[in-house]
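HUMAN: Spend a minute on the protein record below and explain its fold to me.
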Amino acid sequence: MTQSLAGSCYCGAIRFSLRGSPYRVGICHCLDCRKKTGSLFNPFAVYPVDALIVTGTTTPHRLHADYQRHVCAACASPVYQQQDGSDEVEVFLGTLDEPNRLAPSYELWTVRREAWLPEFPLARHYAHDREGKGRTEP
């Protein structure tokens, strides 16, 4: 399914569009995702880098030796992140104008999942990282 989605940062200084369909959509409960989003889990979509068109100025922040999170230069809202040299980007679902149009199919790092969260009706639940290394989630 091919689609077009749009989104923005908190203040609207950054607008972006996404063309086509994501490779995969997931939820992560790892400590890194918790800290970088300020939430108990991070819903995200992985797209080809050329599917993302950004209007406005983002400021990259180095997360690890090989990851950068791109935030709005004005309000510091996170918009997307990218691993150095990767041809994929991870877009945070909370930045989308219509986040309900993408549904996660898997969750990661369930060993860190809060016990009081209700079960998510997803196809796969991984205790740690994904078992497959392909672009899509089987």
Summary: The chain is about 5% helix and 40% strand. The two ends are 16 Å apart (CA to CA). The longest strand covers residues 42-48.
